[in-house]
Batch of 2 targets.
Target 1
Amino acid sequence: MKYLIIPICFMLNLTLLAQTKVTKKIAAKNNNFGITYSLPKTMLIINAEVTKLTYKAGPYAKYAEKYLGVKNVAMEDRTQYRLGKLSIVNKGVPDTDNTYIVEFKAGTVAPFAYLTDDGMLCSINAEYTPPVEPSTSARDNAPKQDGTADDKAPAFTEELLMAGSEARQAEVAARQIYRIRESRMNILTGEADNLPPDGEAMKLVIQQLERQEKALVCLFAGTTAEETSWFDVALTPYESLEKEVLFRFSERLGIVDADDLSGAPVYINLKAQSSTAPLSETPAKEEKLPKGLAYNIPGKATAEIYLNRKLLMKEEVLVTQFGRREYLAPQIFEDKKAPVKIYFYPETGAIKQIIQ
């Protein structure tokens, strides 16, 4: 297998990105002074923000240009989707084909290690507090509206209510809009006959006039409601990729499956930057592993995501599979008086710091 793409879900509270949970493991006689751990492999989480726009035509839409000079208003209800911000998160997942044991000699002073819940190294002989990472549970998946859909119904005058035809109603509504605008201008310029007594009262009056105007304009221009959701795709690459389809996007349907031809393909190019041969997906059975502490040196790659030949994002990412594996000599742990402390990046398996 050269890559793996998994669509995770819509509007997902993705637990992969929540704070890492760690467990302290003690090297003792009952486990032969050895601690088992797994090196990670890189999973790239591609997140797409999608906004659903719901247009509702106003009852007087066809009179909008005639009475208000507003052009290109929606004449009928419709739904449209917009593809927003894209982001990539590097997530380390255990590589079950690369599991090792870090061994300590008997008598070493309090040897221990911190591992994630799924067995990846965080530190050796050092206390480890996992950093707080961004979590998709913080995303507000509640519908976000532009304000027009929530406005209260306009206060219809008796003249508007008594108007017999739709054309007549539109004309009366337009006149009411202009009267509101004139009243607001008179208050702001001090030309109104009865001005509000103070600044706070003036502010409230202006707000009421603006709300009424907006509600009346919606009778012509219609309303627009926005609802934002998120879609995640998990990609585990083992080699460079070119024009690999992540999902498809349709302005009418939103995000659809990669094999659904109703949408245009959103694809990724992933190119390794280093000349280092990528790590094999599984080690050869006859390969004799060196002794010592195994760790990763991840490779760098450039990720580019396109839609209809338009570059949506370009970012440099770390990919463990594009790097190499190294080993620390066992002798590093033999100092019983001052055991070495090692910190790791659990998402890549790389060494962060060594303290001797």
Target 2
Amino acid sequence: MIAEKKLIEWEEVHGNRYGTPFDKANEADAKPGLVIFDVDVNGGLSVKEHFSNALLVFIKAPSYEILKDRLTKRHTDSPEEIENRLKRIPVEEEKSKLYDHIVTNENLEKTVIEICKIIEDYQSG
């Protein structure tokens, strides 16, 4: 799909490839309602290139130390994978400046409320 340019965005992140097919994105966009993508920082920028009305929200941890602690407590990544993720932070934070909103996730419930408010404000326009 990458070679055939069938992905709206794709990225190799931490040794894994992730992507979103154009046909699925266009199909979702054609329907009423809200479409939410969970993509890395580059993926969000690619989505915005193809859907100029996209609202980009970058969600970040309060600090490097808190992010490292959260990743470690998940028990889903090896220590090497966690270190690779942490090395990307400066690049991601620099690119996040191109997003419409940056939300710091200190408390999940409050973060969800803040993002819902951002979406409501955007939709009411």
